[in-house]
Amino acid sequence: MDIFKGINLKLLAFEHMLKIHHKWQGRAVLVQIANPARAQGKDLKEIQDEIQESCQRINRTFGHEGYSPVVLIERSMSAVEKVAYYSIAECVVVTAVRDGMNLTPYEYIVYRQGIFDSADSVAKSPAKSMLVVSEFIGCSPSLSGAIRINSWNIQTTGEALNEAISLSDAEKELRHEKHYRYVSTHNVAYWSKSFMQGLERTCKDHFSRTCWGSGLGFGFRVVAVDPNFRKLHADGIASAYTKAKSRAILLDYDGTLVPQTSINKKPSREVIRIVSTLCEDKQNVVFIVSGRGRQSLDEWFLPCEKLGISAEHGYFIRWTQDQEWETYSHTTDFTWMQIADPVMNLYTESTDGSCIETKDSALVWHHRDADPDFGSAQAKEMLDHLESVLANEPVSVKSGKFIVEVKPQGISKGLVAEKILSSLAEKGRPADFVLCIGDDRSDEDMFENIAGPVAEKLIAPDASIFGCTVGQKPSQARFFLDDTNDVLNTLTALADASEQFVSPEKLIHSFLIRSSLIIHNDTMNGRSKFPHGTLIQGSSLCLRNLSTFPDYVRNFKGEETFRPPFSQRELCHCIDWDTSLVRRNLSLISSFEPSFTYIATLRAVKFHSIFFQLYK
Ligand SMILES: O=P(O)(O)OC[C@H]1O[C@H](O[C@H]2O[C@H](CO)[C@@H](O)[C@H](O)[C@H]2O)[C@H](O)[C@@H](O)[C@@H]1O
């Protein structure tokens, strides 16, 4: 007798059954064995009184001489006596509202099976057993023939009792057979053996693995990773990059180029600058491979004309900006969305802060803004739920960082990687440098494929392959970078290596386009136009605020595009560069406040100059 055993709920359910199904009055008896209480206290006393009251009421209402519907046994009972009760019981009912494993159902099945004695002259009839078990007890999922109930629901438990004892003998035999087969094979020896096997499997490579501590507080975990798993160092990758002739660079978006936690999901100017520069290099094929929809990716990366984009995990691919989007799936049947959507809605309603995102090819349930523990518990449950209702649909259900996503089967970032590598191979320039960076589970498919047997046939024999995950965690990738800053620093090193081969004019040109600058006519030396082509190595680039150039201000006062007067606040920045460092310093511009007005002077050898103004 413990308060969580749900004994009174069982009595109420039994009472309900007798009330609704009259046929059992005078025939059904509930024997409640209440083992002596393991604790004492007010709560327990209350529950004992409640049980007594229910038993008396039921017996008063439905009992008569020679028939007591409820038999409450409140004393310790010998094992032999218990076996006797179990072996004659048509059905065992466990209604605990909270429990551990609870072995009562297993014991009951074994007692009902009985012992077959070959000396018995009378042939035994097949054993039967029935179970009504609470879904809150540990053994419940292992008993597939049991009727599972939520013990708080008295009506359905009462109906389950009626169903259990009303089933045909053949049905009871089948269910018993199933249960007995399970119980007799999953014995202590089986459990200990499988536990040891699991332990051995998990620890097999421990000595050859490196262990990292990750996370803080309750989130702290020790992860065992391959000893070859190591930090990607910019120098190492930059030297492989410089040597390579045909490079494939595949970059995930969220959590890789932009932190998962940032509220503004658009790429920073820095990201655009790096990606543009990498794309400008003719030896590069650069792709953003993301789960996001194509519209936002398209808009955000507008300045990167040569960038390839794979959206919705590869459902859509666009090779460069001037090419059309292609769909890499023959799927036209999206009726599964009508099945998945109501399930997601159910969880959205019960999980504050969660929401559903509808993409062209997929449905995503987001729980980033929900309570962390509840959100992830709901996500796990929803994943199981979706998997079962969508079992016959052509979809896959996957979880990611604070998301559960349903998408068409066969669509994966891994396939995108293969397509890009195969396109390069078809053009006769198989990749000799492959860099793939991502942070989430969907990116693991890319890491697996770039190093897999299919890719092997598509890339150059001596290719350098860098699969790189963001954050130290078990991964198919061989390298890691710590965070998005680390990713951008590494990519900057590669962009720098590329820029050495890009003319300064090209650099300034792409910078001007990206930064919405307005070029002022060069009035300093009397020229009226930007002297295109005069910018060469060795010239200097100065970006100055007007306070440092009072004379220029005077010179410029007549200019149409000029915007005097300037406030003191606008006149506070000054920077000088050497043109050989142009490529490094251009990125600094993006850190300036865009509402300020600057004059930049780009001097060529003969003091040709351009001036441009930076507007918001
Ligand atoms: O492949 P990725 O580039 O990593 O994109 C995967 C998913 O990105 C988006 O979700 C992510 O951003 C959400 C906030 O905007 C955030 O709540 C979530 O945790 C992130 O995973 C996108 O909404 C999903 O459709 C993509 O599958």
From TrEMBL:
<dbReference type="GO" id="GO:0016757">
    <property type="term" value="F:glycosyltransferase activity"/>
</dbReference>
<dbReference type="InterPro" id="IPR006379">
    <property type="entry name" value="HAD-SF_hydro_IIB"/>
</dbReference>
<dbReference type="InterPro" id="IPR001830">
    <property type="entry name" value="Glyco_trans_20"/>
</dbReference>
<protein>
    <recommendedName>
        <fullName>Trehalose-phosphatase</fullName>
    </recommendedName>
</protein>
<dbReference type="Pfam" id="PF02358">
    <property type="entry name" value="Trehalose_PPase"/>
</dbReference>
<dbReference type="GO" id="GO:0005829">
    <property type="term" value="C:cytosol"/>
</dbReference>
<comment type="similarity">
    <text>In the N-terminal section; belongs to the glycosyltransferase 20 family.</text>
</comment>
<keyword id="KW-0808">Transferase</keyword>
<dbReference type="Pfam" id="PF00982">
    <property type="entry name" value="Glyco_transf_20"/>
</dbReference>
<dbReference type="InterPro" id="IPR003337">
    <property type="entry name" value="Trehalose_PPase"/>
</dbReference>
<dbReference type="GO" id="GO:0005992">
    <property type="term" value="P:trehalose biosynthetic process"/>
</dbReference>
<keyword id="KW-0328">Glycosyltransferase</keyword>
<comment type="similarity">
    <text>In the C-terminal section; belongs to the trehalose phosphatase family.</text>
</comment>
<dbReference type="GO" id="GO:0004805">
    <property type="term" value="F:trehalose-phosphatase activity"/>
</dbReference>
